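BUG-261 | component: ligand-complex export | severity: low

The export step for magnesium ion jobs runs without errors, but we want the raw record kept on the ticket for reference. Input record follows.
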Amino acid sequence: MKENHEVYIKQLTAGYPGKPGIIRQLTTRSLQPGTITALAGPNAAGKSTLLKSIAGLIPARGEIMIGQQNILHFPMLKKAKLISYMPQYLPFDISLSVVESLVASLKASPLDQISAKLPEVEKRAFDLLEEMDIMHLATEAVNRLSGGQRQLVSLAQAIIRVPEILLLDEPTSALDLQHQVTVMRWIKNYARRGKIILIVLHDINMALRWADEAILLHNGRVYLHDKPGAVFTKEALKEVYHVNADIEATASGHLQVIVKD
Ligand SMILES: Nc1ncnc2c1ncn2[C@@H]1O[C@H](COP(=O)(O)OP(=O)(O)OP(=O)(O)O)[C@@H](O)[C@H]1O
Ligand SMILES: [Mg+2]
């Protein structure tokens, strides 16, 4: 697979048994390598469903084009080489240590030959923990971590395969203020390596602060897809969230939502 291709989603329809059209004929603008796209929208709008359909975890129809290829038709292993997905809910009921869980994530993927050798896989896991500043968690059991620690480890699990496309479902929802900033800075740096990031964020101010583009999802469709400042307008927040808000520029030049209700 060639790297650094933009991605287009065209006429994508996805859902669940008995609920086939949660995502309906969804088309986006291109997602560019090197950028973060925030995915926002009310509860049950279909954000997680969209991510799961891109990751190939639920059946979908339509096109997810990377270059000239529709990745919807890729076999699972080929897709796993390209895309990593961090779920909204973290299934950590196994008693592996953090570093063991990273090794497992790496070995579960169809990786290059190097990673088949345990010492090198472990080194990669330790290097990532160091890079993410969570080396102190290396030998902790994942099922005994705090909510925020689990989220950091889950992000590490998604990133360790160095995917071209990184799908993150509310990766900062359990993080304290400091970790929100460090994680978003980390994600931004990762994007700048030519990767495509699609990240579900409920916090509009975070989307305004960190994302290059934003998709506002409403009832399984794209309501707006544009620069964050053009998506999160007073009118859109009223229409989609039924909230009266002003959008103001902060002293540092960022836009900020002030809810008036
Ligand atoms: N496994 C499932 N089986 C059946 N229906 C599902 C399943 N998961 C989600 N749904 C339904 O799909 C719709 C969209 O859910 P989804 O999880 O994509 O919303 P979301 O935008 O991620 O919401 P939230 O902000 O609450 O996480 C909801 O009506 C939900 O009930
Ligand atoms: Mg969700």
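Assignee comment: Attached the raw record above. The chain has a mean pLDDT of 91.
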